[in-house]
Amino acid sequence: MRKISVYILNQFLPLFLTIFFVISAIISLIYIITISNITSKIQITFIELLKFYILSMPQILLITLAISFFISAINLYSKLSETQELIALFSLGFKPKTLLNPILLLAILLTFINLFILFISIPYAKMNFNNLKNEKKQEAKFNFQSSQVSQQFGDWVIFANKGKNNSFTKIYLYSPKENKFIISQNAQLQNKNSVLNFALTIGNIYDFNKSMQIKFNKMEINQLIPKVKISIFNFKDYFKYNKKEFAKYLPIALLPITLFFFIPLISFFHPRLNKSHPLFYAITILSIYSIVSLSNKNFILSILISVLFFIIGGILYKWKVKF
């Protein structure tokens, strides 16, 4: 029995790795296109695009692991059916349950990994993804155009001539809130730890409320970029912030277990008596399951979807494939 389990795992792993790399490449391409659409209105470098992609990796990994496992398992058993190895094993007294056990253990392990990705990795990656996107949007807002009026930097209205590398000359700033007017010869705009820093050099401040003028050699105006901070230890806010992602991806995380009974239903067949199309059936079931899962935004409904597919698969398995 142990040798059979080792044999099945040895046949499964190469299939899984091959399918995993193919599917991950396809899903990665989809996510890169999605990132490009999200960031189409802001200017980003290749390194920043890479950061966005890395922060999308938990979702890519979750989807890829689940789909790769299901297709690989069906591919494995359908090949064993086509070569009549399954028939030979059944003739020797092996039950379907025994042949499925090694893949079932992998399904359970993979489900735990997926749940860790879903409830730990995805929330923190999403937080950093949104913070980075918000940071680039704020920088885009402060991408001042040369010699244009009504441009804003926080509470300040700005007019300036733009130089190179976020440097400016002949800067004029007015704050309606504080009723102050600033004239400066030079300025540099920088991002310092999520704070947009506008460093002015050589200029004057005119305070109309106090009727006073102040000369300065260097002055800084800071604009804080808002950031989201979440912690799993604050579970209520943590769940509330990530509720949509949990509802969306929970059925995908549970897919190796939820659709497990569909594996023998599709891939256990007699090659002479049945002309099966396992890949077609696998893609059909995956498509239906994915559409239903990813279109859902309710966490409780996500659990019900997973349980429903598991029960349907279990009933069909017990009816068609004898223990």
Task: Characterise the protein shown here.
InterPro entries: LptG/LptF_permease. It is found in: Cell membrane. The chain crosses the membrane at residues 12-33, 53-78, 99-122, 246-266, 278-294, 300-319. It is a multi-pass membrane protein. Keywords: Cell membrane, Membrane, Transmembrane, Transmembrane helix. The structure is a single chain. With 323 residues, the chain is α+β, with helices and mostly antiparallel strands. The protein has two domains: 2-139 and 229-320, no CATH class; 144-224, no CATH class. It contains nine helices and six strands; from the N terminus they run ααααββββββααααα. It has a six-stranded antiparallel sheet with strand order 1-2-3-4-5-6, with no helix packed on it. Helix 1 runs antiparallel to helix 2 (46-82), helix 2 (46-82) crosses helix 8 (278-294) and helix 5 (235-253) runs antiparallel to helix 8. It is elongated and about 100 Å long. It starts with a helix and ends with a helix.
Going across the biggest sheet, name each strand in turn: 1-2-3-4-5-6
Average pLDDT reading = 83
The class by helix and strand makeup works out as alpha+beta
- For this structure, the quaternary state is single chain
Number of helical segments?
Answer: 9
Whole-number tally of structural domains: 2
Q: Main β-sheet, in a few words?
A: 6 strands, antiparallel
Overall geometry: elongated
Low-confidence stretches: none
Tell me the span between the first and last alpha carbons. 16 Å
Strand tally is 6
Question: Into which percentage range does the β-strand content fall?
Answer: 15-25%
Helix content: 55-70%
State Rg. 29 Å
Order of helices and strands: HHHHEEEEEEHHHHH
